Hints:
Bound molecules: S-adenosylmethionine
Number of helices: 8
Helix content: 25-40%
CATH architecture: 3-Layer(aba) Sandwich
Strand content: 15-25%
Order of helices and strands: HHEHEEHEHEHHEEH
Distance between the termini: 58 Å
CATH class: Alpha Beta
Shape: globular
CATH superfamily: Vaccinia Virus protein VP39
CATH topology: Rossmann fold
Strand order of the largest sheet: 3-2-1-4-5-7-6
Amino acid sequence: MSLWKDFLENRNRETFKCHNYFPVYERHFASWKNRSLVFMEIGVDKGGSLQMWQRYFGPMAKIIGIDINPECKKLEQPGIFIRIGDQSSPEFLQSVIDEFGAPDIVLDDGSHHMKHISATFNYLYPKQHKNALYMVEDLCTCYWEEYGGGIDRQESFITITKNLIDSLNADHSRGAITPDSFTRQTFAIACYDGIIVFEKGDVWRKECCRTGGKPAHGFRSLLKKIFSGTR
Length: 231
Ligand SMILES: C[S@@+](CC[C@H](N)C(=O)[O-])C[C@H]1O[C@@H](n2cnc3c(N)ncnc32)[C@H](O)[C@@H]1O
């Protein structure tokens, strides 16, 4: 069953997601189904999304929900672990990592406040392993003042991401931007309406080369030597 169908037919706990997010979830999450996985969603609320993720990822997934509201703890059930704390607290986030390991996937659907989104990202992203995913949703708030947003505002997570796109490309900037750990640990940044996804990757080969066409004479004689055993 597709996640979209599961969401529409949900008669379990309540969840609140935007329709256009589902193709994004499927695009980035599908290859993680039925694997042993630590999936962390920031923002539990009524608990419906945690149940949806459990149905989607399958029995080997550990679904971790974190929320500042202590009431959410009651929504724990087998395979769904809920920890109570502030998403912007490094001590709290570290305690969750100590207990479950670094998450393979983070989905930030928490306070949606700029300072929380970046504090959580800055702490968790470097701790995730090299093929992990980090997704932030409801980034409409990047344009809303009451969430610390605003067009081109330095604190806006959209502005921060625009700068991270430069960091991803730092190797081509002719020294203008110093490559950093983000440059070295990031494979892709995908931007959608309301969602940004960071795909980690250990991208260690970036040289460009031409292949095909007619082999050069020297190369041809080298191949001959190799195959005739004279080398
Ligand atoms: C949008 S709701 C989560 C919805 C849920 N993920 C779903 O899809 O059904 C946001 C949740 O974030 C929690 N929250 C707000 N500020 C937080 C913070 N600083 N740290 C952790 N959770 C926070 C709220 O208590 C609320 O339950």
